[in-house]
What we know:
By secondary structure, the chain is α+β, with helices and mostly antiparallel strands. It folds into 2 domains: 42-177, no CATH class; 203-283, no CATH class. The protein is built from 9 helices and 11 strands. The chain has helices at residues 12-21, 42-47, 98-105, 142-147, 159-168, 171-177, 203-213, 255-258, 271-279, and strands spanning 51-52, 59-60, 66-68, 71-72, 74-77, 79-80, 112-115, 121-127, 131-137, 233-237, 250-254. The strands form 4 sheets. A 3-stranded antiparallel beta sheet has the order 1-7-5. The chain is elongated and about 95 Å long.
Amino acid sequence: MTFKLPDFLGWSTFNGLRHKMGAPLVARFGAQHVVTEIDLPVIDRLQGKGIDVTADQIQVLDDGTLAYKGYRVLVYIRDVPSIGARGSMPKYHFAHCRTLETMYRNHRSERYVVAISDSGFFHVNVLDSGIKSEPVRLDVCQNCLAHIRWKGFDMQMARPSRLSIVGEFKLSEFFTTYPKALLAVTPKHSSDTAPLNTYTDNWPEVSARTRSIRGYKCEKCDIVLPGGEAKFLHVHHQNGQKHDNSDENLEVLCIGCHAEEPMHAHMKSLPDYREFSERYRRRT
């Protein structure tokens, strides 16, 4: 069955209203007319319900946080089976932590959405007898906190201490430390005042002390490598700045995990890496 629209130009009520409004007639649409969909700016979509993304669209910054089209972003799962117990809800991420690495490895990253709202509420699709979209408060991923050592957070801390930091975590404070708009960040240094990106003179002492204090344990895979295996245990600058020896910027990693960091794949060609893989990785 087909329906024919009425001729609005011959409808007296319509024309009377048009004259009162002072609205002129426009040319009829022709075959050449193209309807263009309105695409909201990226910032508006990120601040709203977020944007569906694939893994290759998310950038991992030098400090380990995540970015999308010039903005530091949060990543979370939008589709959930049902709104159940608090502990069953997905967590949101702000860093390329081991949880995200596992999800990408299992090809589940297509379920993720990027957003930048600092309210703590995220729009999720509840797949329970249909699809219902609603804002839900989610908790921060603890592996993300550990990845950037937020306020000294460590997965080896006592559970009450970890939960205290999680409970007090505020996205507004996070985005103050790690600004949303990457292009709007004013550089701390000019080309004349920027320090050389080289290790400090006391780096050997800093590295040895950091490994000792943290128990000669890799903070990614938890392997323990005592002092005699120092060549396999590195201290990594998370923000890529070798002169920044602040405690929160240093991460103790075995050479195997260090080689998996962004821009560190060259380590896999080192003799130490091959020896480490032969001696330790083949045991698992």
